[in-house]
Write a structure and sequence with these properties.
Blueprint: H1 2-18, E1 37-44, E2 47-53, E3 60-68, E4 74-80, E5 85-89, E6 97-105, E7 114-118, H2 124-131, E8 133-137, E9 140-146, E10 153-160, E11 166-174, E12 178-183, E13 191-198, E14 214-215, E15 221-222, E16 229-231, E17 267-285, E18 299-307, E19 321-327, H3 341-349, E20 351-354, E21 362-372, E22 383-390
Antiparallel strand pairs: 1-2, 2-5, 3-4, 3-6, 6-7, 8-9, 9-12, 10-11, 10-13, 13-14, 15-22, 16-17, 17-20, 17-21, 17-22, 18-19, 18-21
Length: 392
């Protein structure tokens, strides 16, 4: 008999444990919460910041706002009891919009809604759309824009293929205030390029084309290194230390390198391109040291200078025009000693630094390496590539 009772108890226990659990509030209701009061509105780009007073009721957990965007999608913003501010964002117009504010308590009961009407300021997306320019670049098209609100926006870059169809060539997300991207690898023939921009809330632009829609890419080639030489100006460093050679910096072999001596930073070196060229970009290659990059004496920060006429042998800096400050950035943003697959792929490809389209042609280009990833007092660049078009 005892065995039978035990058996029945086990069956009941199993049946009970198999019953679907009901998700219920962890506390009972102390009464329907009162709504917020004294709502203040501050219009911002793409929305508004609402401040308010929360009723003095002990079981209130927070405030939520429910609103609908022009896309038809409904969104919900929530803040805790400890805040008196709610951000309502995602609008891509400056029309009048409504948000309903509710307080909610521990029993997940909602107050009566407080309806608030506001007009957002111009959205970050719309500002960026107005700022976009697409112009002819070396080997393709250059896309420029200004994102003054530094909003995270996604850019889709398109180009016409050989059949005349628009194809997505690259997609990036950027928060940079002033930004530039280029699509390259195209012959100097008429072609259509375009971009589409969208934000977090899936607001998006129409397809944006350049003025005139069709542009002709500028001719670009990798300049012939057999015509280049490393000059030895009076205040340049030598790169012939620890198996390094000056000439290895322009030998197209990324397993070799130039190596400056100890206590040599900043370390300048100068390249005679062998002819006057309109430069589009340079690519700095790191040395693969201990099967990795972003370490030891690999260049991190450097400056590029240029001139068209042969420089004085003493290397007088007053004769040189500064072109740009450069810094090699790890794509992952990871700390020193941590290198991801993405970082490795970027280093194998080389780090590109783009010249302004307005840059005058030069024949002599000078690099001044200021610092390294390993904090060393020497540096060991593996290779430098120069792209553009010879003009003389």
């Amino acid at each position: 008999m005892k065995k039978f009772i035990t058996y029945i108890a086990v069956i009941i226990l199993i049946a009970t444990s198999c019953t679907e659990k009901q998700l219920e509030p962890i506390t009972g209701s102390l009464g329907k919460p009162q709504p917020v009061t004294d709502v203040q509105i501050e219009p911002v780009a793409g929305g508004a910041i609402l401040t308010y007073k929360i009723p003095n009721m002990e079981d209130i957990l927070g405030v939520k706002g429910i609103y609908k965007l022009s896309t038809g999608k409904t969104y919900e913003a929530t803040s805790s009891f400890y805040e008196n501010k709610l951000e309502i964002l995602g609008f891509n117009d400056t029309l009048s919009h409504v948000v309903e504010l509710f307080t909610f308590n521990r029993a997940l009961e909602l107050s009566e809604p407080v309806r608030v009407t506001f007009n957002p300021k111009e959205s970050a997306l719309n500002k960026v759309i107005k700022s976009i320019s697409i112009v002819s670049d070396f080997g393709g098209a250059q896309f420029n824009w200004i994102n003054e609100d530094r909003a995270p926006l996604t850019f889709e870059f398109l180009a016409q293929d050989s059949l005349g169809k628009m194809q997505t060539m690259r997609i990036i997300t950027s928060e940079a205030e002033i930004a530039r991207q280029s699509l390259r690898g195209y012959e100097p023939e008429p072609r259509v390029f375009a971009t589409i921009v969208r934000d977090y809330w899936d607001n998006r632009s129409d397809t944006i084309y350049p003025d005139g829609k069709v542009i002709i890419p500028r001719y670009e080639e990798k300049l012939d290194k057999t015509k280049m030489t490393i000059m030895k100006l009076g205040n340049d460093q030598n790169f012939t230390n620890w198996e390094g050679m000056d000439s290895y910096i322009i030998d197209d072999d990324h397993s070799t390198f130039g190596h400056s001596p100890n206590s040599s930073l900043p370390a300048p070196f100068t390249i005679d391109l062998g002819g006057i060229a309109k430069i589009s970009r340079v690519v700095m290659h790191q040395r693969n040291y201990s099967n990795s990059y972003y370490n030891w004496g690999n260049p991190q920060k450097f400056i590029i200078y240029g001139r068209v006429e042969r420089p004085s042998q003493n290397g007088n800096w007053d004769e040189w025009t500064k072109i740009m400050d450069c810094e090699i950035i790890k794509p992952s943003g990871s700390p020193s000693g941590t290198v991801t697959d993405e970082d490795m792929a970027a280093a194998r490809e080389g780090h590109e630094f783009v010249f302004e389209l307005s840059q005058e042609p030069i024949r002599y280009i000078r690099f001044e390496i200021l610092s390294t990833f390993g904090g060393t007092t020497f540096t060991h660049p593996a290779d430098v590539d120069v792209y553009g078009e010879l003009v003389q």
